[in-house]
Amino acid sequence: MLLLLVRGTNQRTAHNLDLETEAAADDDFFGVASERGVVAVPGSESFTRDRLEKFEHLARSRDARVSDVKVIDAGFGTIRYDSDNQPSLQEFTKRDRSEKIVTERPGNGSRAGSFAPKHLEGADDGKPPDSEEQQTAYDYLRRESPPSSVKLDSKGFRILKSEIRPDLSRLLHTEAVDLLRKLVLYNDNDILVLNKPYGMLCHGPAPGVSDACVLTKLLPDLSSALYPRQDAKLYTVHRLDRDVTGVLLLARTQRMADMLNSLFQKHQVSKTYLAITAGVPDHLEGVIDMPLAEGEVEGAKRMVLNPKLDPEFQRLVPKFRKSFAAVTTYRVLASCGRAGYLELRPTTGVKHQLRAHLGLGLRCPILGDHKYSHLRRLAPQKLPGDMLDRLGIRQSKVRDAPLHLHARAVVVPEILDGRNLTVAAEVPYHFAKNLRRLKLNRN
Question: Which residue ranges does the record annotate as region Disordered (predicted)?
Answer without folding.
Answer: 83-134
